[in-house]
Queue: 2 jobs
Job 1
Amino acid sequence: MADNKIIVLKDISVSFDSEVILNNLNLYIKDGEFVTFLGPSGCGKTTTLRIIGGFVTPDKGDVLFNTKKINNLPPHKREVNTIFQKYALFPHLNVYENVAFGMRVQKKGENEIRNTVHEMLKMVNLSGYENRNVNSLSGGQQQRIAIARALANRPKVLLLDEPLGALDLKLRKDMQVELKNIQQKTGITFIFVTHDQEEALSMSDTVVVMDKGEIQQVGTPLDIYNEPKNAFVADFIGESNILDGIMHENYLVEFAGKKFDCLDCGFGKMEPVDVVIRPEDIEVVEPEKGHICGLVTSVTFKGVHYEIIVDVNGFKWMIQSTEVQNPGDKIGMILQPDDIHIMKKSKYSGAFGDYSAFSDEMYEEQHNKPITEEE
Amino acid sequence: MKSKSINIPYILWIGIFIVVPLILVLLFAFTDSSGNFTIENIINVGNYASVFVRSIWLGLIATVICVILGYPMAYALSKIAPNMQEFMIVLLMLPMWMNFLLRTYAWMTILENNGLLNRLLMFIGIGQVNLINTSGAVVLGMVYNFLPYMILPIYTIISRIDNRIIEAAQDLGASRRKVFSKIILPLSIPGVISGITMVFVPAVSTFIISKMLGGGANILIGDLIEMQFLGSSYNPNLGSAISLVLMILIMICMGIMNQFDHEDNSMGGMII
Ligand SMILES: Nc1ncnc2c1ncn2[C@@H]1O[C@H](COP(=O)(O)OP(=O)(O)OP(=O)(O)O)[C@@H](O)[C@H]1O
Ligand SMILES: [Mg+2]
């Protein structure tokens, strides 16, 4: 298992109409893992999938499949199958023939086709739907037919382009579990595209965070969440307070006018850095006991917790806490060393991580119509 | 309830211009010149069986040629650059904006014994060939006049096929040929059916084309009917009977045709 990279993308660049869509992308995908491309709309996720599927030829760079270069291999010769963003079932064929399509094209025997179709339909819980017209199925059922159709070809790699985008929340959750089960059962490499960070974190072995045609970070869901590489990743995955800081020495950082112990090292002396603090890590105490003091400007009830915006010398922090606070109260905040994560400065520094705009909106809302804090 | 009142003008239209004339045809077909009931007219239609056979046969040949020529043209049309497609469609329609009679006259001057084509043939030494007043000329006229009606519905339906469906087929291992035979062809059958209807029906009942290009020996049902109303052998009762039989024959043909269309019956409205 020394070399189990099933797909390698090497220095890939793509432009459409002289607009750069993917910029020098490098990525490898290990055999049998569940990889998710995560990023905002238009960042190039679908384009990356289409390069792997063979529908887009990169302007520059190589696509390797099991170490073989496949840049110019047409889609029908690739051992990769796709579940498209909008399913794309064949409207003139019934469920059985849709699932059988790939095998028919490969001229498989009638017996094998029948067995595989039944097996696949059983896997997606649609046994007995063989003769149904695909147009008469619900969105979730069409989705599962698309999965069965792709898996019936027994691909080495399955590409899934936001397959759950059109489903309601409940069905979405069920399908997430179902997809994960199918992936584990079959051992097929899944490359999954989504712009839903929760979906990405809960399903994947590896998450690839993309923005503006560039990979921002590759890592396990835990790495991505706990150790974001830059302000974009920190902001895109979950909520983050991102502050300017200065690394005095290893394990000692200054921000918000105070020095804090931290767990990060390897930065230059007095190097400017971005400091990330997750809202749920902050402990709220009495003003005089806190490392930092601030004024509560708004409180929103979110079900599991309250979302509290605190003004500290003009910088608005977000805190998530199960205890309610009142707007106008002075509170203290405690930050433990492992709550503090240090990132190198990047082009995203300063663009994210201050909840000013957010809290202004809230503030106005509250003053326009006097409602309770739990609004 | 509102939708019902909206329907009234259409129902009136259908009543005045479709149902009433049909009843009149029926009435004429089953009466003699003094208005008494008779089935003699219908029986007499049998005397013209050979004209019916020739009309349907020539119409069929023209339709088949239109499919053979039209399908590849429609397919090619749907594959060229989108702005080019618009231009090509205008080109295709251009002759249709010209009067039908004029177009057919033009062919007369081309096919005549000392027409354009024959002069060319003589010039290159093949000698004069009799082109005009043959059934071939009639078929040519039909194909020329009705080909756009074959191309347009096929083109429309092919260009509406979702590209993602084609990509899905490629993704599942289908080569270009397989994509065509397993996806594009079956999905375009409704267009072919509607094209066939739009070519076959006017081809069978045409009268100007056969008159101008076919000469006296190639009269078709259309000519026959025309003669009963306007021509020498004035007999609207027989004319109506012939029309009635023609209508029934065409309906049978289209019925058989639609058996080949296993898709949803979105084209069902085109039968008559
Ligand atoms: N065929 C094309 N021609 C021109 N531009 C294209 C083409 N395909 C994609 N683009 C552009 O490339 C960019 C990236 O598109 P892509 O579909 O990869 O985004 P995405 O990350 O999948 O977004 P989404 O989450 O909305 O699906 C977009 O700005 C899009 O407009
Ligand atoms: Mg996309």
Note: The pocket of adenosine-5'-triphosphate (ligand 1) is lined by residues A 16-17, 21, 39, 41-47, 195 (CB under 6 Å).
Job 2
Amino acid sequence: MAAVTLSHVGKSYGAVGVLHGVSVDIADGEFVILVGQSGCGKSTLLRMIAGLESVTSGDISIGDRVINDLPPKDRDIAMVFQNYALYPHMTVRKNMEFGLKLRGTPRAEINEKVAHASAILGLESLMERLPRELSGGQRQRVAMGRAIVRDPQVFLFDEPLSNLDAKLRVHMRTEIKALHQRLGATVIYVTHDQIEAMTMADKIVVMHDGRIAQQGAPLDIYDRPANLFVAQFIGSPSMNILDGQFAGDGSAVFITDKGVHILLANVPAENAGRPAKIGIRPEHIMLNDSGIAARVIVTEPTGSETQLTLDVDGHELVVLIRDRVDYKPNDVLKIGLAQNHIHAFDADSGSRLTL
Amino acid sequence: MTLASAGERRASQQARRLSGSRKVGRISYWPFVLPALVVVSAVVVFPWAFTLWMSVSEWKVGEPYHFVGFANYLRLLHDQRFLQSIGRTLLYTVLSVVAPMVIGTLAALLFNEKMPARGLLRGIFVMPMMATPVAIALVWTMMFHPQLGVLNYLLSLIGLDPQDWVFAPDTVIASLVMVETWQWSPLVMLIVLGGLASLPADPYESARIDGANAFQRFWYLTLPMILPFLLVAMTIRMIDALKSFDIIYAITQGGPGTASETTNLYLYSVAFAYAEIGYGSAIAVLFFLLIVVLSLVLLHVRELSGRILGTTK
Ligand SMILES: Nc1ncnc2c1ncn2[C@@H]1O[C@H](COP(=O)(O)OP(=O)(O)OP(=O)(O)O)[C@@H](O)[C@H]1O
Ligand SMILES: [Mg+2]
């Protein structure tokens, strides 16, 4: 049983609070991804689960057991550190064997596991090198290897693929997924990569300033962000946000601060006249001949799609369209918004409003 | 004249021109090298050459000098007092390397931990290093005194028999090593402390997760990573211990009998008490070779470990 439960976990360094009341339930075998801006406390949380940092308040449990004060070695976890933390004086092979040796694993089993992991990670030709003779990406793979051979109940990954090239990253992503399915271990994974988060996670936990901004299935978070921070953080390019207020007469219209009228599917009666922000993702804006006039500022073709930055009466909107278009700056075109994909947030608290 | 020989001549002319131009170059750098060369010759090369020369001579101060070839060296091979002094020197050196290494390293590990008044305690521990040999000899001679010394008093407190320390042939070497250890463990500590401060922190976190306990972390991480520093300390300690003279001379003058006469002390007696300069020089040469060989061995070990740890290329 390796369910991991964080209940009201807090951490401070002296007077500086880094984590505040973080609660997450992670089921046995679940793949959870932590995302959030740099410095929001992801690594700190991971290190607390690993037992490398003390818990200031709240409880961390693995299975039914509170492990706040359990030393790392008794937690049956493996961790890939953000800065690799390899043993500088040991070869790649020794680095990978070390944990197994300490646990008294039989030699034959060690060899088998190390050979297997090094094959997955493409490290076979580097086994006798020292860490300082490796590139950043190679070191990162050794750090992965060291975790993989351990076969733990819980894997903790702190941005394990950040230094790999695009191709290797896609390959490793698949390998990690396969590993997860094969071993059935619980995985807690930190990343800055949106695609990693969306494609690998059973559950995404979005953190903001040491608090949880939202947690849930990737598509739920994408489709129904709980607040403005999540709305802007998840998705790339990020969601367009417009300031303004709902029409005072109760009609389903949002009037922006620059006076643009946007038709909505529905506005609950109690929100009439309420100041708010609305958000729409770039892919939910279409070219539409009967829509609002917009002036082209920048056209950025990415190959499969085209990203347009448009000016609509002083609002800058980013639009993503499937077709190859060849607009020049200052061309004028007409756009429409997909009404049922418009999100609304409270102007002050930023929390989601139902439409 | 054949074509080939004409070609050869051209080539040799060319070579002469080239060597001519090189001669100009040689003249031009002499002024820069000369001063250093003169100084080095005067302070290093000359004394050495002179020692080597004397070691193949017989020359007692006040008597005429004459060349004897390798007679001095052959005489050394049968000189029991010399051979015993070598054995004693090696014993003294091994003990005076091992004991300060162990104590100095343990002290470094201890003082590397956070603790109250750490700076003050470190300072106190380092103090023996700064004392002068004669003062040390004076203090320790008094402490070693069989009747009045504090050491036997301390032994009596824990119920042990009094010892004769430096006044008995069986215990004199061990007692002198005690003094050496007391004075030089701090140096080892300082060097090792520097090594500990340079260690990266994150491998220790990996090791904790990999399941290493405190001893295993020390054994598998700390020790190999500070090995280059240990070897530096060891080399310094070894050379110092081999050459050790002042403390031994001031406390025992090599006694009782010749029980603490190391090669260095014997050399001193031969050269300055018996005034046999030639024979003394031969001892000096052999003794120097011994130091060089031992240092080379350590240097080699250090290089090996350095290559593994990446501290040397
Ligand atoms: N030992 C420490 N003492 C004081 N503050 C610390 C300490 N370690 C981390 N912090 C602070 O805690 C906050 C969270 O750090 P953490 O490393 O968890 O961020 P992160 O989310 O992993 O960021 P990144 O994405 O850049 O890795 C940061 O503001 C950092 O400055
Ligand atoms: Mg981090």
Note: The CA atoms of residues 180 and 187 of chain A lie 7 Å apart.
